Amino acid sequence: INYREESIVERVKEITGGKKVRVVYDSVGKDTWEASLDCLQRRGLMVSFGNASGPVTGVNLGILNQKGSLYATRPSLQGYITTREELTEASNELFSLIASGVIKVDVAENQRYALKDARRAHEVLESRATQGSSLLIP
């Protein structure tokens, strides 16, 4: 759902027949925080993992109660993987799932960059002109 083009909440209600969702993964940040919470069912989970529009600040935790006893988390890789061995194991598992087709990686042609163009890839990402994944190719 492109929050700049349509109401996140209305679109989620349309997709779910008004039931909303159990989990929201929000990579945008401050611009979608409130709408993301409004998409959750009672006791739903908000996973905030990005700040594309800026960090969420000044949060009154009481809003989680008011909107249905919601949960919110801000996970990081460092909270799950702390040793080189854990990183190697998780990476091997991920790449195995990708290679077997269980996880599909779909990157738009205009978001694939030669490694020598990494600077350009970062500029485009920082300008928020991307959607989905970008890929650096060695």
TrEMBL record:
<dbReference type="GO" id="GO:0005829">
    <property type="term" value="C:cytosol"/>
</dbReference>
<protein>
    <submittedName>
        <fullName>Quinone oxidoreductase</fullName>
        <ecNumber>1.6.5.5</ecNumber>
    </submittedName>
</protein>
<dbReference type="GO" id="GO:0003960">
    <property type="term" value="F:quinone reductase (NADPH) activity"/>
</dbReference>
<dbReference type="GO" id="GO:0070402">
    <property type="term" value="F:NADPH binding"/>
</dbReference>
<dbReference type="InterPro" id="IPR036291">
    <property type="entry name" value="NAD(P)-bd_dom_sf"/>
</dbReference>
<dbReference type="Pfam" id="PF13602">
    <property type="entry name" value="ADH_zinc_N_2"/>
</dbReference>
<keyword id="KW-0521">NADP</keyword>
<keyword id="KW-0560">Oxidoreductase</keyword>
<dbReference type="GO" id="GO:0035925">
    <property type="term" value="F:mRNA 3'-UTR AU-rich region binding"/>
</dbReference>
